[in-house]
Structures are given as C-alpha cells and as structure tokens.
Amino acid sequence: MLANNVLLLRKDNGNGTSKDWAAAAVPASNGLVLTAWFGRSGRPLQIRAIPLGRWRQALITDEIRHRYREKEREGYVAIGDCGIEDDGTVRMSGNRSVDDQIPASQPASEPKKVVYFEIQRNRERIAVVDEFLRVVRELLPKVGGTLQGDGVSFTLTIGSWSVALDQRLKAAGMVKPEHGACPLLFLMTLKKSVPDGVTVNLARDDGIEVSNRLLSEKDVLVWFGKTVEEVAGLAERLGLVVSIVDRAKVANEPDFYF
Q1: What is the tens place of the pLDDT at every residue in 63-96?
Q2: Does residue 34 sit in the same domain as residue 134?
Q3: What is the DSSP letter of 74?
C-alpha cells in the first residue's frame, strides 16, 4: 500500500462518468513527498510526485489543503477515505470531509539543511539542448567542474556532487552541505542563465524557494559553512552578482567615498 487514509474527491462529468482526485504526503527516503492521484473513477489512478518548485505554500500540510480547496472550487466533492495501492488501485474505507482531511498546521520542524533542485526542459526546440550545454560549459570551469558525455547523455560533476542528464534535460536531486558551496552557487547561477525552454527550480526542505539573489540566501549559505563575503569573489566570476568597483582606488583618491 502506497498510502492509507487518503480523502478521495470525485467530480461528475455529466455524461455518466466521473473522475477522482486525491493528494497526500508520502514517506520516501529523502523525506515526505507530496503525491497526487487522478483519473477516471473505477480505474487505477495515475500517480504524480509534485516537486518542491511547484508548491505554492511553505508547509506540505498547507500545500495539500490548498490543493484540496482548489479541487472543491472545480466541482469535486469528498466521497470518503481510501487506501491507494502502488499501482493506483483505490480501496474505499470510510467517510470524511475536506475539513477533516488535513490537521491544522503544526509549527514547522527544523528543515533538513539541503537544497533540492529540478532541471526541466519545457520546450521541444532542438537548439535548446546546445544552448543549455553552452551555458553549462561556460560556468563549470569557474567552479572547478567538468562535463563528460557522448552527445546523448552527460554527467555534470563538481567535486563530490554530480548529476546525470540526457537530451530531455530532466533531472532532480539535492545539494548537501558536504558537497560544498560550489554546486549551490552553480545552480543559483544556472537558474538565472538557462535559455528559454529550460527551467531550474531550487527549494529548501521546508518548501521555500531558493532564489538566484545571493543576499537573499544568507541563511542557506550558512548551512554550507559560508558567508556572502566569503563567496563574493566566486559569485562575481559566475555573474551571480555584479562586480562592485572600488572607485576610490580607481581614482587614486583614498579619501573619496561612495
């Protein structure tokens, strides 16, 4: 059984058929995964894991409640509790309402000090792969990374951190403190530099987005044992921040302040 005590919603299609929907936090090796099920009533449901980058709420309980409310507005109604098998088969078990589905939000537990990433190609434009790899090749030497591949599949490596890619440019994983700050800065830069047609999402364990604005992510840098000042030089080389010119030194006027 993949999930137990999940509230199942149903919507009448008006033609004698209906469709079902449900969502829950499912335990996985890397923590709780927001999982949704959907499909035609009476048949095994399709299963989708919803990545952190697509959450609209910070807490998983709030995100699930938000999605249930959205479905209610679309005309879905609660028909009761169910268990859902690994293949999407539904086993009904009891009655509940949406109000009972998700308990009131609890104070956020201490998040894991990791950053999750997702790279996704969302256009079929042929040139997008070459454009993406060009950006990657420009950035990697600046963080001591390498890109190896045969033209079909690629492995991007920075120190002990690596990610495998193919022509679909679809990958997901995490950056841990033990990987060092370089992969994190690389991904933050990649997020702002990828060509149109590719998306890079970054998020903390608590669902909060990690932006490409260095000064906004001071607390995340602390997880990796760094301060903004310590990574400023590398961030400038990557183009993550704009270089600050010491105008007093340039003008040779040390008493001239800006």
Answers
A1: 898 899 999 989 999 998 899 998 999 998 866 6
A2: no
A3: T
Only one residue has tokens 């080389």, namely 237
Domain housing 39: 3-101
CA distance 204 to 53: 9
Which residue reads 């492995």 in tokens? 155
Q: Which residues pair with 46 in a beta bridge?
A: 38
What single-letter DSSP state applies at residue 214? Answer: G
User: Tokens at residue 47, please?
Assistant: 């299963």
Q: 194 in a domain, yes or no?
A: yes
Residue 256 within any structural domain of the chain = no
Tokens representing 178 are 């033990």
Cα 41–chain centre separation: 30
pTM beyond 0.70: no
Burial of 247 (0-12, 13-18, 19+ CB in 10 A): exposed
